[in-house]
């Protein structure tokens, strides 16, 4: 498993379509849109491409919900098949977010995770759709959230409104994802860093323009962001990393840097008193470093703090 993962997040404008060509014409226009926009990131040879929520939604003046769901039914798996062919050709994963019709005729707001062979290796159904979406459509709330295993690590998916719900966050915390993939129609603000830090995971967000796509590290630092002129961003992240606290680790980290120098990296976001440390060499993993210097991981430190508080005689009467 490679420790370095190159991730591209995209936020092109929603496609205005010509409905005079019928539903078939609209589907072809959506495929043509993504053929054009993917050329911005495919030359980078990413390991993963993250697309925004409902990435193949068209728009036109006066478009209503009834027409949109008619489009979904007609479109079927056409865009999924297109993205699967791209993933297979370019040997990358693609997080494809779209409205999906189920066998009973209801819909789910979903992320379909496509692997390097063009196969769907995981599916996430948005657990927290909005009241408005539920009241105006046959879309149902998802009820499960499982990490997806990839060749670069464990991935948790969430979609837009999901980012506001702590119960979903806690489900993922227990599963220890290494990367959070966020397909969305809005940015989420401080919640992006909150999710990344709470899960001790990297965070990749693809959000519709005019918002920005972001890549955030496990201590809440933005390591990549799209811009107005470049509505896409590609960065390489190091998955071979852990989060540790300042307490009881500071002297050990000093010894670590003196011995290994640039072979280990310490990312200090300041004000947090927690650091992200990563191995920048093939000579050893970060777990080797943790063992060699007896570093205490952040979550283990929190457990020890709680245990100390609960010891006899430590809590005020």
TrEMBL record:
Entry-linked Pfam families: CN_hydrolase (PF00795)
Keyword line: Hydrolase
InterPro entries according to UniProt: Aliph_Amidase/BUP (IPR050345), C-N_Hydrolase (IPR003010), C-N_Hydrolase_sf (IPR036526)
Molecular-function GO terms, alphabetical: hydrolase activity
Domain CN hydrolase span(s) in chain numbering: 15-271
SUPFAM superfamilies documented for this protein: Carbon-nitrogen hydrolase
PROSITE patterns linked to this entry: CN_HYDROLASE
Protein name from the UniProt record: Carbon-nitrogen hydrolase family protein
Origin organism lineage: Bacteria, Bacillati, Bacillota, Bacilli, Bacillales
């Amino acid at each position: 498993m490679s420790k370095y993962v190159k991730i591209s997040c995209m936020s092109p404008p929603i496609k205005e379509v010509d409905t005079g060509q019928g539903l078939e014409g609209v589907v072809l226009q959506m495929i043509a849109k993504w053929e054009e926009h993917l050329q911005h990131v495919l030359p980078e040879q990413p390991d993963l491409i993250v697309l925004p929520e409902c990435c193949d939604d068209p728009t036109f003046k006066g478009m209503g919900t009834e027409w949109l769901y008619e489009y979904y039914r007609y479109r079927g798996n056409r865009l999924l098949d297109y993205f699967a062919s791209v993933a297979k050709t370019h040997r990358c994963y693609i997080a494809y977010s779209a409205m999906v019709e189920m066998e009973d005729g209801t819909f789910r707001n979903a992320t379909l995770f496509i692997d390097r062979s063009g196969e769907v290796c995981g599916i996430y159904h948005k657990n927290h759709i909005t009241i408005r979406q539920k009241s105006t459509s046959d879309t149902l709330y998802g009820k499960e959230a499982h990490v997806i295993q990839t060749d670069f690590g464990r991935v948790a998916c969430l979609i837009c409104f999901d980012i506001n719900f702590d119960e979903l966050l806690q489900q993922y915390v227990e599963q220890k994802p290494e990367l959070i993939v966020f397909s969305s129609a809005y940015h989420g603000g401080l919640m992006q860093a909150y999710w990344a830090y709470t899960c001790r995971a990297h965070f990749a967000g693809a959000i519709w323009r005019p918002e920005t796509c972001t890549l955030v590290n496990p201590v809440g630092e933005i390591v990549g962001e799209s811009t107005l002129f470049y509505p896409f961003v590609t960065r390489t992240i190091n998955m071979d990393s852990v989060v540790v606290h300042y307490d009881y680790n500071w002297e050990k980290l000093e010894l670590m840097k003196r011995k290994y120098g640039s072979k280990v990296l310490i990312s200090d976001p300041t004000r947090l008193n927690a650091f992200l440390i990563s191995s920048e060499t093939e000579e050893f993993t970060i777990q080797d470093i943790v063992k060699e210097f007896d570093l205490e991981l952040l979550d283990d430190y929190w457990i020890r703090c709680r245990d100390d508080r609960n010891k006899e005689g430590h809590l005020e009467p």
